Amino acid sequence: MEQADFRAASYWMTTRDYLPGPPLADDLEVDVAIIGGGFTGLSAAHHLKLAEPGLRVALLEGEVIGFGASGRNGGFNMTLFGLTLSITALRFGKSQAREAHRYMELAVDTTRDLIASLGIDCDYEHPEVFFVNRRTIPWPPEPIRSLAAAAIRGYMRWEDKRFDPAT
Q: Quick one: what percent of the chain has pLDDT higher than 90?
């Protein structure tokens, strides 16, 4: 696919100049070959080299870096993955849902930390997300004032009377 074609499909390709590397011309002998230059492939290559600097790592991408879903996403870095936490708990149990949620929090924090430590210029923002389920907030407004105060303090991950991943 021509780069011009990809630029039309990816907002991110329109924000910076990108010159793909040359195609692989010969056989390559490596310790680890990573197929795919999206978030997962790039992260795997980066972390492998950090853990073992002498490791010979090749990252192979058939199109351009970020060609797949990594290049066509909305740029959100959050703990949502398609199922609500309560549906995940019903399907897999509270313990596994809690573990998945904590893992997603770690993924968000790791992305933020990588961007900072590598000095990546990407206009990254890390605002907290405030979720409210109107069926779980009783009236009068005191519980709402408590939730708002927690959000103003800058840290609120989840509020659900039926399922709290922090417990």
A: 25
Cα–Cα distance list, 3 to 14, 37, 67 (Å): 11, 15, 10
Residue 167 one-letter amino acid: T
Its pTM stands at: 0.65
Based on the domain organization, do 40 and 95 belong to the same domain?
no
Q: Same domain for 57 and 130? A: no
Q: Is the dihedral of CA 20, 28, 50, 101 positive or negative?
A: positive
How far is Cα 154 from Cα 133, in angstroms, rounded to an integer?
Answer: 19
Rounded to whole angstroms, the Cα distance separating 75 from 84 reads 20
Domain of 84, in residue numbers: 76-167
Q: Which residues is 32 bridged to in the sheet?
A: 57
Bridge partner residues of 34 (DSSP) = 59
